[in-house]
């Protein structure tokens, strides 16, 4: 199983307000590489509710690179991989929005959703939120840390594939 797991944190309700990204490369069902970076969002404000969730504020990103500056490195990391995310519609929306904001062509990678995968693989779980699935599988998680969230997503996909192959 080969893919790249991705997770964004945002500064506010604008989908293009990415302020952090975590990426986890998986080859043959093993994590082989990771990437994390803070991002200077295009708009200069963070909503308090978002800062409380992920702990990132304007002072932490004001001297960081913009997504436009980071995109070549991020795109090279992802390559042509399938992209996995938990509740992928959010992260896919952030990626598409920030690329559109900077007038960068959106890549045509296919997507996996660890939320949907976990619902299919472990239907009896009371919740399929990232933190609850990670907890049920014994995956350590600092929720809303972009790299930890991406790692948990990757490990959920790997565990689901192993679970399915043992049926």
Looking across the biggest beta sheet, what order are the strands in? 3-2-1-4-5
Shape: globular
Spatial separation of the terminal alpha carbons: 17 Å
**What is the CATH homology-level superfamily?**
Ribonuclease H-like superfamily/Ribonuclease H
Helix content: 40-55%
* CATH architecture grouping: 2-Layer Sandwich
Description:
- The chain is of the alpha/beta class and 167 residues long.
- It has a single domain (3-165), classed as Nucleotidyltransferase, domain 5 (2-Layer Sandwich), CATH 3.30.420.
- Helices cover 44% and strands 20% of the residues.
- It contains 7 helices and 5 strands.
- It has a 5-stranded mixed β-sheet with strand order 3-2-1-4-5, with helices on both faces.
- A hairpin with a 7-residue loop joins strand 1 (3-10) and strand 2.
Name a few traits of the molecule.
20% strand; alpha/beta; Nucleotidyltransferase, domain 5; 5-stranded mixed sheet; 167 residues; globular
Helices and strands in order:
Elements: E1 3-10, E2 18-27, E3 30-38, H1 48-54, H2 58-61, H3 67-78, E4 83-85, H4 88-101, E5 111-113, H5 114-121, H6 130-137, H7 146-165
Parallel strand pairs: 1-4, 4-5
Antiparallel strand pairs: 1-2, 2-3
What is the structure about, briefly put?
With 167 residues, the protein is of the alpha/beta class. 44% of the residues lie in helices and 20% in strands. It has one domain (3-165): 2-Layer Sandwich (Nucleotidyltransferase, domain 5).
């Amino acid at each position: 199983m080969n893919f790249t797991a991705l997770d964004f944190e945002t500064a506010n309700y604008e989908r293009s307000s990415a302020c952090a990204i975590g990426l986890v490369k998986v080859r043959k069902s093993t994590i082989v590489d990771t990437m994390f970076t803070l991002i200077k969002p295009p708009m200069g404000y963070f909503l308090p509710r978002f800062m409380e969730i992920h702990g990132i504020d304007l002072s932490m990103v004001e001297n960081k690179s913009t997504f436009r500056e980071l995109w070549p490195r991020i795109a090279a990391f992802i390559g042509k991989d399938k992209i996995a995310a938990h509740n992928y519609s959010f992260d896919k929306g952030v990626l598409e929005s920030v690329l559109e904001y900077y007038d960068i062509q959106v890549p045509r990678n296919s997507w996996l959703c660890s939320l949907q995968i976990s619902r299919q693989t472990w239907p009896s779980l009371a919740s399929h939120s990232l933190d609850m699935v990670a907890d049920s599988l014994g995956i350590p998680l600092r929720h809303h840390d972009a790299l930890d969230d991406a790692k948990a997503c990757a490990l959920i996909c790997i565990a689901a594939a192993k679970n399915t192959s043992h049926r």
